[in-house]
Amino acid sequence: MKTYFLTVFEKDGTNIVDETFEAKNDEEASTIGKQKLEEQGYEEKTHRCAAPEGHLVLFHR
């Protein structure tokens, strides 16, 4: 399992979510990240999900 980082921002750059979660791979992390965003109602906010290696799995601006 790898630890992924999910961050959500307001338009002014304020962090509103900064959390980690574990997934087996990037595909699973993308699915989990999308699910977390939908549950919290943040799917239309600026967000990113980064892999431990530093590349983005999800990004929305």
Describe this structure in words.
The protein is an alpha+beta fold and 61 residues long. The termini are far apart. It has one helix and four strands; from the N terminus they run ββαββ. The protein has one helix at 26-40, and strands at 2-9, 15-23, 46-50, 56-60. The mean pLDDT is 96. It has a four-stranded antiparallel sheet, with helices on one face.
Return the structural class: alpha+beta
Radius of gyration: 11 Å
Low-confidence stretches: none
Strand order of the largest sheet: 2-1-3-4
Number of strands: 4
Q: Provide the succession of SSEs.
A: EEHEE
The major pleated sheet works out as: 4 strands, antiparallel
**What portion of the residues fall into strands of 2 or more residues?**
35-45%
Q: Kindly report the average pLDDT value.
A: 96
Shape: globular
The rounded distance between the terminal residues' Cα atoms is 28 Å
Task: List key phrases describing it.
alpha+beta; 4-stranded antiparallel beta sheet
In short:
This protein is α+β, with helices and mostly antiparallel strands and 61 residues long. The protein is 25% helix and 44% strand.
Topology diagram in text:
Elements: E1 2-9, E2 15-23, H1 26-40, E3 46-50, E4 56-60
Antiparallel strand pairs: 1-2, 1-3, 3-4
